[in-house]
């Protein structure tokens, strides 16, 4: 549907921009992944940018949903005030019950920060934060004009560059700076500024192979910069109602030695499919020839870790072995010391954020030391460690054959590190869900990609994730993967399903058996109430112990062990053969022993198995099969 053009930048424009950017990156994701050769050829830049923007878009949608939920009361107040309550102007969303520009850009920046993935995603998150710092304080937070957008783009580029320990030209940083420079020289409304930024970014993207030898040898433009061009194209469309015209990257790399005609990926800048062109030696710059006045010679010595072979990309293993990413709660002084510590440990260091919350990204050989540095600085969480050496279809090259695709895999969402280990030992690919931080559909799609199988069984393990999991399954099917979604509502149901998983039988038979096992497992959890509330078992107060059976509060108590025993007795009253207990970090040490003893004494034919779930949110999960 065509976008409605507008001359200013307000909350609705932010919402539209996020949605269009997410759609554009979704179309271009595979193409961007395929041209990802710097700083590590791990083939995930497009996916990481998509996940980062998905988190930003979800945060903006949550702000709008919150205002819409209270809209009824505000409309009544406006009606009582008469016509004078209307006519606040098109940009004053906050005055009419919707979020203000400040609300929207702050949500966008925070969502990107907590959802940032990879080097480029982390840099994009800092750019959005830089824009929010400027736009959130202008015109009372209602809307911004062309001048405001110019300042925001400038601050975005500058803050992103400052967040990178050792900025490198020919990357997304160069593209961002060029976009800001082009915007600085433009007069007019927001649409004109956005279009100038897009055109400046597009030109800078085409020049990236002349700035970075590894890109030139591979015959590609910078993947992060390519993603930023898509994001800026979405900004143009959000503000003008028209998508900018696509144009191929205007760069052709040198021909390999021997005069062969390489096949060069020509990347349209609007997310359209990649096409290949034959490049003739007479059309290509000679080896060592500068593509621009500041471009370096194509010398492998200028690019440590490069293979030096024409037509090949850098491969994982030439640099650090691990990518470490985590969110960190820490003060500014501690983060300054952390930057110095991590800079000595590895490379590709990017630390973004502020106001006590940071996103840390670094490539290191000692992942444990990188995490320990975070612990010394503050409280790290949502820790992700990726081993570059594992490789996948995108990181294969000469001497590195692609990993064989498995026939079948299981992808499961798990609420704690302990369960993640348990599921992984059983062969599942896991997605860790922190309390209050459910995974987005893009994270589930990425997990399906990591599983690298023709057939995938998806276990969401949470009733609230059914729609997210369904969306992920549809995206994976569109990519050619056969996906079956089993609607597990708890991790204990997932354990039951995984226990009967048999890759050797037909896909349909396996799915039926796993679905049956999950459906035959009743589930419960014991947790602590955070506030006073009405429940199906009566009114609870903050601090009460709650026992939930099949998602509904069944018991309200004061003692964890006593409440858990009551819940277990109610579940076993209908019969059962196996009790599964999953203990959270905050559960009393004695609760498992008491419940095991209770089962032995009162239910002689029932077995019990106990697992440690880690920081899973609930004190205790219970499953009865």
Automatic annotation (TrEMBL):
Residues 12-237 form the DhaL domain. Residues 273-292 have a biased composition (Basic and acidic residues). It comes from Streptomyces leeuwenhoekii. Residues 81-97 have a biased composition (Gly residues). This is Dihydroxyacetone kinase. Keywords: Kinase, Transferase. The keyword Transcription does not apply. PANTHER family: DEGV DOMAIN-CONTAINING PROTEIN DR_1986-RELATED, PHOSPHATASE PROTEIN. One of its GO terms (molecular function) is kinase activity. Residues 71-98, 246-314 are annotated as: Disordered. PROSITE patterns: DHAL (PS51480).
């Amino acid at each position: 549907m065509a976008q409605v053009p507008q001359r200013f930048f307000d909350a609705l424009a932010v919402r539209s921009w996020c949605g269009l950017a997410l759609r554009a990156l979704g179309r271009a994701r595979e193409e961007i992944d395929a041209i990802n050769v710097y700083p590590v050829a791990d083939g995930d830049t497009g996916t990481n940018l998509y996940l980062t923007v998905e988190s930003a878009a979800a945060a903006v949608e949550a702000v709008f949903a919150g205002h819409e939920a209270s809209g009824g009361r505000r409309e009544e107040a406006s009606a009582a005030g008469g016509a004078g309550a209307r006519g606040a102007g098109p940009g004053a969303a906050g005055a009419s019950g919707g979020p203000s520009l400040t609300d929207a850009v702050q949500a966008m920046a925070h969502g990107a920060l907590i959802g940032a993935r990879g080097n480029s995603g982390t840099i994009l998150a800092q750019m959005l934060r830089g824009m929010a710092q400027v736009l959130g304080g202008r015109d009372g937070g209602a809307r911004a004009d062309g001048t405001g957008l110019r300042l925001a783009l400038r601050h975005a580029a500058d803050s992103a560059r400052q967040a990178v320990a050792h900025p490198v030209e020919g990357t997304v940083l160069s593209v961002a700076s060029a976009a800001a420079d082009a915007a600085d020289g433009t007069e007019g409304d927001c649409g004109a500024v956005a279009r100038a930024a897009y055109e400046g970014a597009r030109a800078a993207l085409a020049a990236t192979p002349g700035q970075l030898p590894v890109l030139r040898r591979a015959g590609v433009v910078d993947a992060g910069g390519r993603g930023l061009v898509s994001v800026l194209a979405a900004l143009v469309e959000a503000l003008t109602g028209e998508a900018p015209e696509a144009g191929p990257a205007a760069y052709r790399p040198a021909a390999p030695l021997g005069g062969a005609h390489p096949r060069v990926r020509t990347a349209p800048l609007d997310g359209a499919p990649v096409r290949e062109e034959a490049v003739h030696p007479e059309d290509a710059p000679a080896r060592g020839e500068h593509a621009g006045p500041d471009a370096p010679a194509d010398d492998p010595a200028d690019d440590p870790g490069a293979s030096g072979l024409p037509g090949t990309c850098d491969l994982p293993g030439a640099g650090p072995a691990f990518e470490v990413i985590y969110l960190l709660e820490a003060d500014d002084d501690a983060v300054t010391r952390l930057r110095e510590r991590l800079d000595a440990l590895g490379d590709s260091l990017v630390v973004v954020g502020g106001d006590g919350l940071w996103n840390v990204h670094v490539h290191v050989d000692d992942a444990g030391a990188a995490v320990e540095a975070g612990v010394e600085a503050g409280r790290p969480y949502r820790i992700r460690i990726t081993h570059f050496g594992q490789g996948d279809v995108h990181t294969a090259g000469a001497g590195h054959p692609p990993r064989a695709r498995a026939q079948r895999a299981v992808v499961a969402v798990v609420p704690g590190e302990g369960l993640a280990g348990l599921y992984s030992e059983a062969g599942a690919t896991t997605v860790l869900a922190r309390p209050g931080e459910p995974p987005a559909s893009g994270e589930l799609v990425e997990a399906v990609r990591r599983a690298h199988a023709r057939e995938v069984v998806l276990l969401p393990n949470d009733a609230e994730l059914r729609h997210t999991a369904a969306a992920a399954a549809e995206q994976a099917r569109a990519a050619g993967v056969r996906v079956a979604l089993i609607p597990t509502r708890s991790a204990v149901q997932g354990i039951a399903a995984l226990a009967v998983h048999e890759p050797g039988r037909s896909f349909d038979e396996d799915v039926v058996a796993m679905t049956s096992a999950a459906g035959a497992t009743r589930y419960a959890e014991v947790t602590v109430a955070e506030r006073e509330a009405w429940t199906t078992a009566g009114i609870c107060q903050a601090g009460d112990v709650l026992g939930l059976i099949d998602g509904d509060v069944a018991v309200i108590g004061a003692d964890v062990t006593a409440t858990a025993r009551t819940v277990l007795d109610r579940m076993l009253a209908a019969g059962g053969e196996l009790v599964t207990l999953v203990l959270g970090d905050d559960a009393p040490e004695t609760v498992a022993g008491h419940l095991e003893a209770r089962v032995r004494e009162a239910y002689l034919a029932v077995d019990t198995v106990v697992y440690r779930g880690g920081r899973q949110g609930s004190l205790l999960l219970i499953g009865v099969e």
